[in-house]
Design a protein that fits this description.
alpha/beta, 9-stranded mixed sheet, 5-stranded parallel sheet, globular
């Protein structure tokens, strides 16, 4: 039976916030690090800033349904800005803080945003550069002190104005003294079907499209998410993923808002391990890469220690795997196994939990496949990592694993009120209150998003098992079809490769080819340890990957990672990259997804060389596969 929510918790995000301010008042809503210490900000303090900024926007001419852009890193002012925009009845247009000139200009022009709130002087300069291209943009609200870096010409013209954060709040405070009723009139007039946000997809291909999400899209998603996950208002959530992305916004911001939790912001993605220790959160949202990095760091430590410590860890890891599957069946450890688990916990597993703060009740994983081995490891350790699935177009959650209903390797069961079915070609289709209203200013793309019966086409291939757990194969557009007619999903293979401690990133290639190849970015920290242990003197990363011992090592690790796969999914040749794929090089999206087609085009010569017997490649020998004792050439010809 579904939980019944009070009306104010279903009408709009603004009505939820106002209800929570009345309920929680002086309790801590946000925590941010200032001068090396986490400082609290109460619900009432946040509400005061929201009133001032919202009324500042109103005084600057913002009307209901106008678009206001927001471009800053994950921080308290992002939430305050969002709540202020929504309280004005306006629509939040988030922009990734890593976006550059033409990307920013496209979003501002397409959305016809009139004001943009930016989070740094660097972003301010990016906006100043493209401002002449954006006729609708009138005002930029920037951090305190950032105007000092601008000249008089940049500061203001007759039509354009730069305000600092405190200036905008002061304007709003003065306006509110004379127009106090307008604030409540604006936020209380917003309905659940009004647009809350236009989120531009990160665009692995083509120009980003603006996904139109209503207040109800977000709130229905939060309600569905909390139906099978009990979240207490005493919980602290650690937030570090981009709030411009729908996953962090819904699960890492709106969910704690609805549940009355405290949100603590990490200083940076790189400081998350340290911030976990300081904040000791009860929950957090992450992409799989963080879980992989923490796991690999632990494995690196025990491998270096060797001896008894190494044996104990891998014994405890097997205990945690068994425990994970007991928990997945909603059962409890019993008998002699319960005793073994207690010993493993005291010697190893508790230490893993302490690395992540020691209080985590659950974590949410999304954005990419987590991998069954990692899921079992963390869940069996007592860190419940709940993998889910969704899209920007679905606010985002379509399905998720819960504490009681979990199947590793799947992305869980469809959320309450969400319908899922599989099309004849294997594509996942969905309906429900989480589905967006379409793409802003793009009717053609909106029409293509839905089938003739109104089902949203996710673009992902998958299947439902007999218990309604959803399994994702890959993106429909990413499927590789070999010249032999075999369909290959690259993501699961890449996941197997990056689970190896020596491999940081991997991209698979092979469409219309007779075998698969891969481009591999190594984990150079691990390679340097290997080099030291094997008397390899090279420390330069390029020289290191040209060393024959290192090349043989990586070829063996690839073979070992994939040894259980069928012949047509094996990798025949690899190219070792001397650096990681990066966002700066446009090879990754802001959510760290591979821009596959861009990488295929950028490195076309290298991909072609992997099919040339005179090219620069490393042959992979599958001697780890027990059924095959010969090299890959024979395997591929079978």
């Amino acid at each position: 039976m579904q939980k019944k929510w009070p009306e104010e918790m279903t009408k709009s995000i603004s009505s939820v916030f106002q209800a929570q301010v009345k309920k929680y008042g002086d309790r801590t809503m946000l925590m941010e690090k200032t001068n090396g210490v986490y400082e609290p900000k109460s619900w009432r303090e946040v509400a005061d800033a929201v009133i001032k900024l919202s009324q500042g926007l109103n005084s600057l001419g913002i009307k209901p349904k106008d678009r206001v852009a927001l471009m800053m890193t994950t921080q308290g002012n992002w939430a305050i800005s969002d709540l202020a925009i929504l309280a004005s009845g306006a629509i939040n247009v988030p922009i990734y803080p890593t976006n550059k000139g033409t990307q920013i200009a496209h979003i501002l022009i397409d959305s016809a945003s009139e004001i943009i709130i930016v989070g740094s002087s660097e972003i301010l300069h990016e906006v100043i550069e493209i401002w002449p291209q954006v006729p609708t943009l009138r005002v930029v609200i920037a951090p305190n002190g950032s105007k000092n870096e601008l000249n008089d010409k940049q500061l203001a013209t007759k039509e354009k104005q730069v305000l600092e954060w405190d200036e905008a709040l002061q304007i709003g405070h003065k306006f509110h003294q004379e127009n106090s009723r307008l604030f409540e009139e604006r936020w209380s007039a917003v309905t659940k079907d009004d647009l809350a946000s236009i989120i531009y997809t990160s665009g692995t291909t083509g120009k980003p499209k603006g996904v139109m999400l209503s207040h109800n899209n977000f709130l229905s998603n939060v309600r569905a998410g909390t139906e099978h996950v009990d979240i207490k208002d005493s919980y602290v959530s650690l937030s570090f993923l981009p709030l411009s992305h729908v996953l962090e916004r819904t699960a890492g911001y709106y969910m704690p808002l609805v549940c009355g939790c405290t949100i603590a912001y990490a200083e940076d993605v790189l400081t998350v391990p340290q911030n976990l220790q300081e904040v000791q959160p009860h929950m957090m949202v992450s992409v799989p890469r963080l879980y992989e990095k923490i796991y690999n760091k632990v494995v690196e430590g025990v491998n270096q220690a060797g001896g008894l410590k190494k044996k104990l860890f891998f014994w405890a890891k097997e205990i945690s795997r068994v425990n994970a599957n007991i928990l997945a069946n909603n059962q409890s450890p019993k008998g002699f196994f319960k005793l073994k688990l207690a010993i493993a916990d005291a010697l190893v597993l508790k230490k893993i939990r302490n690395i992540m703060g020691g209080r985590l009740v659950f974590c949410i994983s999304g954005g990419a496949p987590l991998g069954k081995e990692l899921a079992e490891f963390y869940n069996g350790c007592g860190i419940r990592v709940l993998e889910g699935y969704g899209l920007t177009e679905t606010s985002p959650v379509i399905s998720y694993n819960s504490l009681e209903h979990c199947r590793y390797g799947s992305v869980g069961r469809p959320a309450p009120e969400v319908e899922v079915k599989i099309a004849e070609d294997g594509e996942i289709l969905t309906k429900g209150p989480q589905v967006c209203q379409g793409y802003y200013n793009n009717q053609e793309a909106t029409n293509a998003l839905f089938d003739e019966d109104g089902w949203l086409k996710t673009g992902d291939i998958g299947h439902l098992d007999d218990d309604s757990y959803l399994f994702i194969t890959d993106r429909k557009k990413d499927l590789i079809i070999t010249s032999g007619g075999k369909n290959v999903a690259p993501q699961p293979i890449e996941g197997l490769l990056t689970s190896d401690r020596y491999i940081e990133q991997a991209v698979i290639y092979g469409d219309k080819r007779n075998y698969l190849v891969a481009m591999v970015a190594p984990n150079f920290e691990q390679l340097k340890i290997f080099a030291k242990d094997n008397n390899i003197s090279e420390t330069d990363e390029y020289l290191l990957i040209t060393n024959e011992k290192v090349k043989r090592l990586l070829a063996k690790r690839v073979a070992k990672a994939l040894h259980d796969l069928p012949n047509f999914e094996q990798i025949k040749r690899i190219y070792i990259k001397d650096s990681e794929f990066t966002m700066d090089a446009n090879e990754l999206t802001p959510t760290l997804k591979v821009r596959r087609r861009f990488i295929y085009q950028k490195y076309a010569e290298i991909w072609n060389s992997l099919y040339d017997d005179n090219g620069d490649f490393i042959e992979v020998k599958y001697k780890f596969a027990p059924q095959i004792a010969t090299g890959v050439n024979e395997r591929q010809s079978m």
